[in-house]
Structure formats: C-alpha cells, structure tokens
Amino acid sequence: MKKNLDIIIIGFALFSVFFGAGNLIFPPYIGATSGSGWLISFLGFAIADIGMILLSINAVAKAGSYQEVVGRAGKKFGLTLEVIMMLCLGPILVIPRTSATTFEMSINPLFPSVNPVIFSILFFGLTLILTIRPTKVMDIIGKFLTPVLLIALFVLIGKGILSPIGELIPVTDSQSLFSTGLTQGYQTMDALGSGGVTALIMTSFLAKGYKNKKEVASLTVKASLVAGIGLVLVYGGLAYLGATVSTIYDANVSQTALLVNITKQLLGHTGSVLLSIIVAFACLTTAVGLTSITAKYFEDVTNKKIKYQHLVILICVFSSIVSNLGVDKIISIAAPILTVLYPVCIVLVLMASFKNIFTKNSTYKGAAYATLVISILTVIDSLGVNISLIHTLPFDSLGFNWIVPAILGGIIGTLIF
After folding, report:
1. Which of 111, 191, 262, 371 would you label with 390, given CA atoms 20 to 30 Å apart?
2. What whole-number distance in Å separates Cα of residue 98 and Cα of residue 84?
3. Nearest of 175, 140, 72 to residue 284 by alpha carbon
4. Are the CB atoms for 29 and 252 separated by under 8 Å?
5. CB neighbour list of residue 409: distance below 8 Å, 6 or more residues apart
6. How distant, in Å, are the alpha carbons of 68, 72, 144, 154, 417 from that of 361?
7. 20 within 8 A of 98, measured Cβ to Cβ
8. Burial of 380 (0-12, 13-18, 19+ CB in 10 A)
9. Poorest-confidence range of 89-103, 165-179, 259-273?
10. In sequence order, what are the residues at sequence separation of 6 or more whose Cβ sits closer than 8 angstroms to the Cβ of residue 319?
11. What is the 3-state secondary structure (H, E, C) of the chain?
12. What pTM did the predictor assign?
C-alpha cells in the first residue's frame, strides 16, 4: 500500500515538473488546427512528447544516471553536453521563464499595477522555501501543488466537454495531421530534462527507504507511467477544447491568445482567474522541480564542494534577475541552444534504450557527432547564413533533418573504429 502511494505521489510530482506553462498552449493549438481530426494530430504529439519522456526516463533509470547514457559518446563529450543542458534547464533559460510567464499570463492581466521585479523576488523566494530540502521536493509538489493544478485543469476541461463552444471543422488529411502533431510534440523538448528529473525521482525513492537499485529503477519507471497517463489525459482534454473552436480560429491565431479566449468563452471572468491559477501552479511546480534538479546535479558534479542549499540560493537569485528580461527575450535566447542539444540527446537516449543492439561506444560517437554537426548547421542557417545542404536532407520539413546523418554516422563509427 505504501509503495503504491509513493509511486502515485512521485508520479504526480513528475507530471507537474513536465507540465510547464509553455506546454499548456501547444495542445489547444493542435486541436484548433485539426478540427475533427484532433485525435490523430494529438497521437503524433503524444508520441513525440510523452513517448520520448517515458523512453528517456526508462533508459536513464536502467543505466543508473544520465551520464551513463550520454557518456557512451565519450566522457568529456557527455559531461559537456550534460553541463550545458543543465545550465539551460536551470538558471540561464527555463527556470527564469517560469517566473516571467507567470507574471505575463497570471499576474499582470489581473493586477496590472504589480511591479515585475518585486514579483520575481516573491516568486523565487517561494521557490527557495519549497526547494531548500531536496528530499522533500517531490512530496511537496506531489501532495500539495499538483492536486490544485489538476483540479483547476479538470474544471476547465470538464466544462469544455459538457458544453462545447462550437462544432468540429471536418478535416480529411490525416497524414498531414499526424506529422503536424509529431512536430509540435518534438518542439516541446521535454525529454531534454529527463536525466535530471530521473535522478531526483530516484533520490526521492532512496530517501523513502528503498535501497535496492533494481527496485528503485522499477519504481521510477512506474512513477513515470503515472505522470504519462496524467499528461495524456490533460493534453488530450486541452486538444479537444481547441478542436471545439476550429470553426472560429485558423492556424494564424496566437497560441496564448487561443487558450485565453477558450477559457473566457467557457467560464467568463471566472475563466480568467482559473487560467491564472493553472499557469501560476504549472510554472511554480516546474520552477521548484528544476531548481532542485539543477542544484542536486551541480552538487554531485562538484563532489559536494558546493552545497545543495547554497546552489539553490544562487539559482533563485540569478533566475530572479534573468526573469525580468521577459518571456519573448528568454525564448529567443533559448531556441538556438536547445535546437543544437535536443537532437543529440534524442539519438543517445534512443540508442541506450536498445543497448543490446547498439553495443559499441564507437556507434554512439559516430551518431552523436554527426547529429551535432547537422544541428549546428541548422541553427546557423536559421540565423540567416544560407546552408542549402541541410534542406536537401530527408525529413527536413518536419525538423528531423538529423535522422539520416545520425544513422550514417553510427554506421561509419561502427565500421571505422
């Protein structure tokens, strides 16, 4: 009984860490642009987002650490990749964005006189209080914060199911719908944080008295399935809400504006308040989870020369400063860096998930380096330097131009080294 309760609580916490406010806006947009075919589009989204999260957690849990996965491409390469990734997930990009998003979507619309600097200090002050004890983070999120978030979400989704806003526009091009959903799910880049998240889950289970490594890995996978089910239900519900306004809005609608309008049409002014609560709790749970994950990671990397509590304080102070740049500025900084990192991480996680097939480190190295080169060229091209070669690669239109080079790189690495 206790074991099942622990799995559910940590699964709830895991759901909240991945369910950031950024992800809140993707599913309604998918539904609005898919109409009657929203389920097909959502399936593509779920595979690329939730599927990759579960696959990543499974690979890391069985390997024992994220470094055991990315380190197959070389210890220095793996460590560099992991450090850059944790800095991006931490104080440089993602954590500051949680405060900026909460202010812009929750606080400013209802209380326009609130000073953003003061709010960021209050937001990260609360994050600090909730994060300062590492073994309690998952319990705090799972027992207290997630239930409030889920109740608010299910009130919104339940109202939309019982009283749909409009008809679903008929759509027949199912292949295009699936690929669109796949691309949107890929763009969430949720699996990027799976290494640190898995480490925090395993630490939480260890703190609860589970000592056997295989049992901890098994419990971690089970908790991730609880989170996965929650994400499927919530994302699916939000996608359906979007589908009910497919006759009103087209693909040009702003994703944020779409969610705001859906909420207002369903619940009026109460909807605005409810959306503010959803965004605030989604951002807070993500901030708490990622702050703890980042602090724990750098404590381990420095062999505890820098204490967890000191790192939490440093992250919260730095994130409070960066958050005042605003959401758009933070996203513009994040996009190129994440575009380089994410494909490499996916390749290494996929190969680690089938480690009985991919047994040689040289295979991992060849695939990782080939993917890295294509990702860097893609970012350079997106910044205005025309590199026509990358647009001739298969699956370029879907954002997966790295797939074939990764396969070739793996084969070459295996044969040569």
Report:
1. 191
2. 19
3. 140
4. no
5. 366, 367, 368, 369, 370, 371
6. 11, 5, 43, 46, 9
7. yes
8. middle
9. 165-179
10. 90, 91, 95, 96, 99, 124, 127, 287, 291
11. CHHHHHHHHHHHHHHHHHCCHHHHCHHHHHHHHHHHHHHHHHHHHHHHHHHHHHHHHHHHHHHCCHHHHHHHHCHHHHHHHHHHHHHHHHHHCHHHHHHHHHHHHHHCCCCCCCCHHHHHHHHHHHHHHHHCCHHHHHHHHHHHHHHHHHHHHHHHHHHHHHCCCCCCCCCCCHHHHHHHHHHHHHHCCHHHHHHHHHHHHHHHHHHCCCCCHHHHHHHHHHHHHHHHHHHHHHHHHHHHHHHCCCCCCCCCCCHHHHHHHHHHHHHHHHHHHHHHHHHHHHHHHHHHHHHHHHHHHHHHHCCCCCCHHHHHHHHHHHHHHHHHHCHHHHHHHHHHHHHHHHHHHHHHHHHHHCCCCCCCHHHHHHHHHHHHHHHHHHHHHHCCCCCHHHHHCCCHHHCCCCHHHHHHHHHHHHHHC
12. 0.87
Note whether 305 and 160 are same-domain residues.
yes
Does position 38 have pLDDT exceeding 90, yes or no?
yes
Side chain identity, residue 27: P
What confidence tens digit (pLDDT) does each residue in 203-252 have? 889 888 898 889 999 999 999 999 999 999 999 999 999 999 998 988 88
Tens digits of per-residue pLDDT, 337-355?
888 989 999 999 999 999 8
Note whether 357 and 277 are same-domain residues.
no
Residues 110, 168 within the same domain: yes
If you search the block for the tokens 């070739």, which residue do you land on? 408
Number of domains in the chain: 2
Angle at 405 between CA 78 and CA 389, to 5 degrees: 120
How far apart (Å, rounded) are the C-alpha atoms in residues 284 and 97?
11
Q: How large is the average pLDDT for residues 152-170?
A: 92
What CATH number is attached to the domain comprising 308?
1.10.4160.10
